[in-house]
Amino acid sequence: MSDKPESVSASRGVTPDGLLHTGASDDPSPEDLVLASGRDLTPQTLEWARHRLAREGRAAIDKQLP
Fold first, then answer.
1. Which of 9, 10, 60, 66 is the S-S candidate for 56 at Cβ 3.0 to 4.6 Å?
2. Domains in the chain: boundaries
């Protein structure tokens, strides 16, 4: 048994794809989408995320995650 948390890969220190989830019962916020896309939180990226969420809905964030 490992002392490492279950969500951390011992070899790479990242969460394995099989343990990632998007929280399908929640509505993603523009901040969620910006962070999932790997961008910095700025007024411009938040505006981009608002438009994308309005156009694509939940699928916008699902496309960003494995």
1. 60
2. 24-62
